[in-house]
Structures are given as structure tokens and as C-alpha cells.
Amino acid sequence: MEVKKILNCSTTDPxxxxxxxxxxxxxxxxxxxxxxxTPEEVGMQKDVETWKNPAGLTEDERRLIIxxxxxxxxxxxxxxxxxxxxxxxxxxNPECRQYLxxxxxEEAIHTDTFIYCCDxxxxxxxxxxxxxxxxxxxxxxxxxxxxMTKSLMxxxxxxxxxxxxxxxxxxxxxxxxxxEGIFFYAGFVMMLSFLRQNKMVGVGxxxxxxxxxxxxxxxxGADLINAIIAENPxxxxxxxxxxxxxxxxxxxxxxxxxxxxxxxxGILGLNAETIREYIQYIADRRLERIGLTKVYGSANPFPWMxxxxxxxxxxxxxxxxxxxxxxxxxxxx
Length: 333
Known about the structure:
Elements: H1 23-34, H2 45-52, H3 59-90, H4 94-121, H5 125-129, H6 131-134, H7 136-148, H8 162-196, H9 201-231, H10 238-262, H11 272-289, E1 313-316, E2 321-324
Antiparallel strand pairs: 1-2
């Protein structure tokens, strides 16, 4: 019987998950199950009152919320399409496929979260879901990821050669490391800054749950990328590594442009420059996670982000009940 591999394991029954070779994939699946949640678990009454009160939020605060809702609603759709339509097709290992199914379910929960928030706050869905068409900095981010993952979306693409495996890893890095690992994190800082200041707490808690899920998606993606490289070391050439670094540096600049649009003036202790420093710090961590050398050396201006993912026990004080959540031990950074 052929030894299990991540890709091109043609003679191994894809449904035969036992014995498990990639224990890390199983760990991520079990952590995801333990972290299960739905948006309806989070009370939103106080948010509704704040949103409908003209004096409840400043114009800049409302702008920040709407813009991040607009970006994330589109981005979650892109990630779901990549997972369901392409990545699952090419990853032949069954334990990795099991986690991909779990991740796809979580992406559906995230999409439902934005529907729930729009409905609860009375937002115009056309305004939220069409922002990627109206706001150039959001469209540039989406277009960048679509261009970076175009191999995945080719119905005739296969991983039957060294060149194509390299293309596949290139696109996985665009999907996991850049989209989920860089483009999401400026938005997390912005939205969780409301939570830290006890504003729009319901929306903030929704984003806190999404952050916890995405931290595991990112960790799985990095391990997946590293495993494919380990099994196909000839793809990891110096030129390819330089291309990956260049792509990540472009992503950091696109995120900085987005931050400038979201934060034309400093609010909530945030401004575009501190967001840029944070994204540079995050980008270095992402580079190191896939075996590359960091390029920025920036400090983390938001050390509280390392702690806010902890959701072992969260009280929903709007409904005066306590819900137990089990947080994974995976380092999101």
C-alpha cells in the first residue's frame, strides 16, 4: 500500500482515515469541534441601543465598523470558495480533508455572523456586501488574493508536476498566510478595540470568536504548507522563497492603505501607523512560521491581542447566563 502523503496519494483510499499519519491535522479538528459556537449565542441588545442612538458612536467609529463588516463579509466568501471548490479537491490525505470540512463549516458560521449582525443592527446589506466594489482599498485586497489563488480556481489544474506543486503551495500561502493571516488581522485589532473599551460589545465578541477560529485555520494552513514542502523539497527554491517574501511585503502595503482609509483620524487608541507596525510584526511571524526569515523587526504595539483570544469562560451579561467554551492551546501569532 502506498504511504500516505498530503498530495497525489492516488492508491490510498481517501476515506481510510486510520491509521492517522498527520496527528497535527487531527488535533486542529478536535480543537475546532471543542470551540463550536453560533452567532445567536451572543446578545446584541446593547449594541442595537448604541447603534440607534445618534450620540452612541462617533461618525469615525461607525465608519470603522461598517468598513470592516464590508471587508470581512466578502473575504469569508472568498475563503469558503477556495476551500470547497479547490483546496479539498487537491488535498488527498483524509485527516487533512476532515479538518478542511470543519474549516468550511466555520467559514459558514462566519458568513452567518455578518448576516446576523446586519439583521440585528438594521444595516443595509447592499451597503455592507458591495463595499468591495465601492472602496478601492478593499477591492485591491480582494483582487490581490484572487490573483494569487488563480491556479486553485483552474478546473484543469493538477498537482502532477514539481512546477504545479510549487504553484499550489504559492496559492496556499496566498490563501492561508496572506488572506487569513495578514488581511484579517488589522480588522481584528480595529473591531476588538471596541470590545476593550466596552463599546459594541456584542459585535466585538462575534469578532473575538472569529479570531479564535482563524488562529486555528492559520496554524493548520502553515503546518499544511510546511508538510507539502517537506514531502516535495525541490519546490522550495531560493527564487520561490523570494517570491513568497515579495508577495507578503505587497500584502503589508495593501493592508496599510486599507488602514489609512479606515482610520483617517486616530480613534480608540488606533491610527494607521500603529496598524502598519502591527501588520509588519504579524508578517514577520507568518514568515518565520513557514521557515523564512523575518524582514521588518517591528515590535507589537498591541500586546493585548495575544491574550484576547482566551475564551475559556465567557459570561454573556446581556442574557445573564454563562457559557462554557474550550479554547485551544494553539498560538495564533
